[in-house]
Design a protein that fits this description.
The complex is a heterodimer of chains A (406) and B (191). Chain A has 406 residues and is an alpha+beta fold. Chain A has helices at 63-68, 76-80, 87-102, 108-136, 140-161, 183-205, 209-215, 223-228, 234-238, 245-248, 269-293, 318-329, 370-376, 378-382, 387-397, 401-405; strands spanning 23-27, 39-45, 48-55, 170-171, 174-175, 337-345, 348-356, 362-368. In chain A, strand 4 and strand 5 (174-175) form a beta hairpin. With 191 residues, chain B is α+β, with helices and mostly antiparallel strands. Chain B starts with a helix and ends with a helix. Classes of the chains: A alpha+beta (406), B alpha+beta (191).
């Protein structure tokens, strides 16, 4: 019977080793772990990734072009929808660019409210990253806990701005509303509670052998490479480069707050994880200080050429009504020129390059999205890694496809 | 604080080398197996956390039976308001349509006459339509309105069965506000 299973070569044919060839595999665009509609064309040698090519643009919405067709004030709700996990930071970035064009001073209370909203958004965004990133690797509990805490942040967003995610809370020259009564107490309860929750996440993941085996040493990018690729945010800091826009080019009064910028050394997925977890703790420190030092005063500039007059002035003052009608129907006209305003988003440096031709609409708005620049380095990070690690590495870059494609 | 203290991981800068085509499955990233005792402790710490959560009360709600309360500032479905004497507030100035970033509001104004008085001013909105499929609920219309005629209410469950039903006409928008919202709006501003 043994003969039936052996195969004899035909006469005149010599045995030779079977060659292998690379297989091209499409990952995405409908893949749950690409965190959106990203398509990666992987060239696989067995299970090892040899080459890869990103295919983006599935979520292209043309925001940059839309800005050109809207007045400056109308652009703010559009900026929300680019990086939809940290809308307040987009709002502030866009508004700061307009304020820079106008050379406009923003009242200190507005600056502090902006800082509070931005830090809440940073924590919320990191929570989503931690939840989904760990869910990709099978840690379901972390995902559920992160969502629970994010709910509190969304409640705070809703109580302040009326919307849970797309806050659109800035206005040129300040913020749209003052904080509602009781909001700071609600925020203080969150600030008091949250550090213990971070301890919980860390108890689940930081020393967990499974988590470490899936993250340590993977997706490594050295400091020099990270700078060459133009990577920013926690990915850059995970490689040990000390660059955070909040420290390097302070805006919105970040220089008043005492906080650290956590740095990694190894530049791997695990270092990025530790950086982001530590950043959440630092954000809580900023929030705590901001609650205590929140200045009184107006929350929007009294420059009537830019900001809408207060509602109670309308029935009394003809001038207010005229300003109101002109601002709403036509908007304001900043002087011609170009500016670049940039903020630290949870993903890195988010920049707005804005050109004005002196009309009431921007001539051009170019966004420098952190996700887009960080995504370029993915090819470098996954080369020579196993197919299964690609998921962990994409998660560690924390891309938002709305931010990549705009 | 020195740079060393800020470092989140104490590992030296030694990236694991990329593997060549002839190498098989990669070795363990750390090069050695971590100690079994440390692993078990770490897993037990995690399990303790999840077990603690198991006995804590649930934070989820049984939607749609239970609903979380909406905040006072919630920006949901639009309403057009009336004065207490029944006249419409809207004066057909079209500022809301001008302010709307997505252009989802259509206002066609007409003159008030003594026989047909709809609003206190000279003009009123003959047609007032909002395309709710386009609306992004930014609230700019509410900010723009000089007479506080349009407000965004607390309703957020706006699903419907056809596209036509999402064009909210004036009749639909003039439906009375929820009583608590009405009371809150009456407490400020002219009645």
């Amino acid at each position: 019977m043994a003969d039936t299973f052996t195969q004899t070569l035909p006469e005149g044919v010599e045995a030779r080793e079977l060659g292998s060839e690379w297989m091209e595999l499409n990952m995405g665009p409908q893949h749950p772990s690409t965190h959106g509609v990203l398509r990666i064309k992987l060239k696989l040698d067995g299970e090892v990734v040899r080459d890869s090519d990103m295919d983006i643009g599935y979520l292209h919405t043309g925001f940059e072009k839309s800005f050109e067709d809207k007045t400056y004030a109308q652009g703010i709700p559009f900026s929300d929808r680019m990086d939809y996990l940290a809308p307040p930071i987009n709002n502030v970035g866009f508004t700061m660019a307009v304020e820079k064009l106008l050379d406009l001073e923003v009242p200190p209370r507005a600056q502090a409210i902006r800082v509070i909203m931005m830090e809440l958004a940073r924590i919320g965004s990191h929570l989503i990253w931690l939840g989904t990133g760990s869910l990709d690797l099978g840690a379901v509990s972390t995902f559920l806990y992160c969502w629970r805490e994010r709910e509190q942040i969304l409640d705070l967003n809703e109580a302040y701005s009326g919307v849970r995610m797309m806050t659109s809370f800035t206005r040129v020259g300040g913020v749209a509303w003052d904080l509602p009564p009781g909001w700071l107490e609600q925020l203080q309860r969150f600030v008091d509670l949250f550090p213990s929750r971070v301890d919980d996440y860390e108890a689940l993941l930081t020393n967990n052998p499974i988590w470490k085996q899936r993250t340590v040493g993977l997706g490594t990018i050295s400091a020099a490479e990270a700078i060459e690729w133009g990577v920013t945010g926690p990915v850059l800091r995970g490689s040990g480069v000390d660059y955070d826009v909040r420290k390097a080019f302070p805006y919105c009064g970040y220089e008043q707050y005492d906080f650290n910028v956590p740095l990694g050394r190894a530049g791997d997925t695990y270092a990025r994880y530790l950086c982001r977890v530590q950043e959440m703790r630092e954000s809580i420190k900023i929030l705590d200080q901001a609650i205590r030092t929140l200045p009184d005063g107006p929350w929007i500039t009294d420059n009537r050429k830019v900001a809408l007059p207060p509602r109670d002035e309308l029935p009394q003052s003809m001038e207010a009504v005229i300003h109101h009608f002109r601002l709403v129907s036509e908007g304001f006209k900043p002087p011609a020129g170009d500016v670049y305003a940039f903020v630290e988003s949870p993903r890195g440096e988010l920049g707005f390059y804005m050109v004005s031709d002196g009309s009431n609409k921007p001539y051009r708005v170019k966004v420098r999205p952190p996700s887009f620049c960080n995504l370029q380095a993915l090819s470098k990070m996954i080369e020579g890694r196993l197919m299964a690690d690609v998921v962990a590495i994409i998660g560690s870059i924390d891309i938002i496809l709305g931010d990549v494609d705009r | 604080m020195s740079d060393e203290d800020r470092e989140v991981d104490g590992k030296p800068d030694q990236p694991t080398p990329l593997r060549g085509p002839d190498e098989g499955v990669p070795p363990h990233p750390e090069g050695k197996r971590p100690s079994v005792a440390a692993d078990i402790t770490a897993l037990a710490t995690g399990l303790k956390t999840t077990l603690g959560e198991f006995f804590s009360p649930a934070v989820t709600l049984e939607y749609p039976e239970d609903k979380s309360p909406r905040s006072e500032r919630y920006r949901g479905r639009h309403y057009l308001r009336r004065y207490e004497n029944g006249l419409e507030r809207c004066i057909g100035c079209e500022l809301c349509a001008a302010a709307c970033p997505v252009g989802c509001i259509l206002v066609i104004a007409a003159e008030n006459t003594d026989e047909n008085r709809v609003s206190p001013g000279e003009r009123y909105a003959k047609t007032y339509e909002i395309n709710m499929l386009r609306c992004i609920f930014c609230g700019y219309c509410e900010d723009a309105c000089p007479v506080q005629a349009i407000v965004l209410g607390p309703e957020y469950e706006l699903s419907d069965t056809s596209r036509e039903k999402f064009i909210y006409t004036k009749e639909k928008l003039l439906e009375p506000l929820p009583p608590d919202v009405q009371a809150r709006l009456d407490s400020k501003g002219p009645k």
